[in-house]
Amino acid sequence: MNIVLLSGGSGKRLWPLSNDIRSKQFIKIFKTADGYESMVQRVYRQITEVDKNASVTIATSKTQVSSIHNQLGEAVGVCVEPCRRDTFPAIALATAYLHDVKGVGLEEPVVVCPVDPYVDNDYFEALKKLSGLAAEGAANLSLMGIEPTYPSEKYGYIIPETADPVSRVKTFKEKPGAATAQEYIRQGALWNGGVFAYKLRYVLERAHELIDFADYRDLYAKYEGLKKISFDYAVVEKEPNIQVMRFAGQWKDMGTWNTLTEAMADASIGKAILNENCDNVHVLNELDVPVLCMGLKDVVVSASAEGILVSDKEESSRIKPYVDAIDQQIMFAEKSWGSFRVLDVEDESLTIKVTLQPGHGMNYHSHNRRDEVWTVISGTGRTIVDGVERPVRAGDVIKMQAGSRHTIFAETELKVIEVQLGKEISVQDKQKYPLER
User: Fold this and answer.
1) pTM of the predicted structure, to 2 decimals
2) Is the pLDDT of residue 437 over 60?
3) pLDDT per position as a tens digit, 342-391
4) Does domain 337-433 have CATH number 2.60.120.10?
5) Where are the beta strands (DSSP E) in 262-323?
6) What are phi and psi of 114, to 5 degrees?
7) H or E stretch including 100?
8) Contacts of residue 226, Cβ cutoff 8 Å, sequence gap at least 6
9) Fewest C-beta in 10 Å: which of 106, 122, 200, 274?
């Protein structure tokens, strides 16, 4: 099964645990035997459990690539969007990537779905069936329609011609009001969960009809100038030869704090105390300080280096305009080599805690407008500063003047306090170099 996972979103609705780099799919909230996993880790695990030979490609923006490799490893396929251009350009680019880079044949089926549904393994069994329908070629597009459990105003609706497990599509409806949604359900309508399958040739041909490009590399180069348009508008609603397969299993969209907390196995993650008078209260705390809740009802509390949210659960869905008004630098991010957390911000200094995973290291780089000091607080590794290599361990201090080339590698998990000193501290002040060994 060739499956493309669409990984987008800016993370505004799950602030303060999410941001432009760490979108909701990377927040670790789902309990496992060994700790917690994120949405993307859960979905990837489920896919490989259902189909160990599945070829997974994640279509995403440049800002999310490091988080994907941090959580899933380097083996997963990633199709990088140079910038955000909605779902049709993203799917066109991913389809060209599958054909031109991964060598997927024109007649092979491809399944596209969001990276963040909360589902059981039967969902991915259904995706295999959907892939089979696409391979049969009875329709140009095969959709998965979710059996609705209530008249939702959040989703578009697919109205099939019949009540059969697989049916031709009669029409599509935009997100309705509650009364209209109830009428759609009476007509046998299904939620549009953004899941569909096709033969690779079909979408590649539609892409060439709407975009002037030669191949994947050419499309990538022209991507920034493409029109922003959804796959539904560009392709689905214009395709007459389309069918839908019903899915009645568990399916939840974890798009708000209210829905996300419904999937939590425990009332709290991190340091939290809830007294006996709390009812339907959930706490997610990434700070190394305790959160105490007393007598609260229907409340979510979330705390991170980005900020603190205390909200009625229903009100939490209205968070976006308030977060849009917050102007703050990224305080936490996962990278392919580990993670960093900002500890302190001053006018002419920035203090960060860096954690490097064993066997990983930073790029060899320099900064023109700031000095840096690394203090190793745990683990072992090695540094290279202006070509000179030395081993490091807890207690060692390494100083880098502006302009010096430097990197650090971890042999074991390595934790470092990095202090940046300068009048102009900026993420843009970084020059990368090849490391000559």
Assistant:
1) 0.83
2) no
3) 999 999 999 999 999 999 999 999 999 999 999 999 999 999 999 999 99
4) yes
5) 268-269, 272-274, 279-285, 291-293, 297-304, 307-312
6) -65, 155
7) helix 87-100
8) 85, 89, 211
9) 106
| pLDDT one-digit tens code per residue, 93-126 | 999 999 999 999 999 999 999 988 899 999 999 9
Question: What's 328's DSSP letter?
Answer: -
- Ranges of H-type helices in 178-275: 178-186, 200-210, 216-222, 231-234, 257-262
- Which tens digit of pLDDT belongs to each residue from 197-219? 999 999 999 999 999 999 999 99
Say how far apart CA 86 and CA 95 lie, in whole Å.
15
Q: For residue 218, how many other CB atoms are within 10 A of its CB?
A: 14
Residue-range domain boundaries for the chain: 2-253, 264-318, 337-433
Residue 276 burial (CB < 10 Å; 0-12/13-18/19+)? exposed
pLDDT higher than threshold 60 for residue 326: yes
State the distance between the two ends of the chain, measured CA to CA, in whole angstroms: 41
Residue of 254, 262, 264 lying closest to 30 (CA atoms): 264
How many helices, marked H, and strands, marked E, lie in the chain?
10, 30
CATH architecture of 2-253: Alpha-Beta Complex (3.90)
